[in-house]
Amino acid sequence: QVQLVESGGGVVQAGGSLRLSCAASGRTFINYGVGWFRQAPGKERMFVAAIRSSGGSTVYTDSVKGRFTISRDNAKNTVYLQMNSLKAEDTAVYYCAATAWWPPRNYDYWGQGTQVTVSS
């Protein structure tokens, strides 16, 4: 069992930065890949980025490449999403999720989400 808690959301001006954290409980966290997703109002939840259990592989959706960086610290059971050059269209609730698969799919565990609002 893995429990995930996101933090770090907030309100930021366009062009600014935020770092989201996804803190996990459970000794098996190191065995899971972790993905970040986002859901804007009235839209479907969309994939943003994912990182392999070892941290050795990452994937990003095209719209955030070069602006967002996913990383993890397995000693702290935490995955991060560094978001730079934020745009109004990045406004959404951001969720982290854990998967035992790589390439990532079939996410088994989800956090409650953290709101990111980018003002233009």
Walk me through this protein's architecture.
The protein is built from no helices and eleven strands. The chain is mainly beta and 120 residues long.
Features:
mainly beta; 7-stranded mixed beta sheet; 51% strand; 4-stranded antiparallel beta sheet
Task: Write a concise synopsis of the structure shown.
By secondary structure, the chain is mainly β. Helix content is 0%, strand content 51%.
Which structural class is indicated by helix and strand composition?
mainly beta
Count up the helices: 0
Instruction: Report the order of strands and helices.
Output: EEEEEEEEEEE
Number of beta-strand segments: 11
Radius of gyration: 13 Å
- Give the fraction of residues assigned to helices: under 10%
Q: Bin the strand percentage.
A: over 45%
Please mark out the parts with pLDDT under 50 across 5 or more consecutive residues, or reply none.
Answer: none
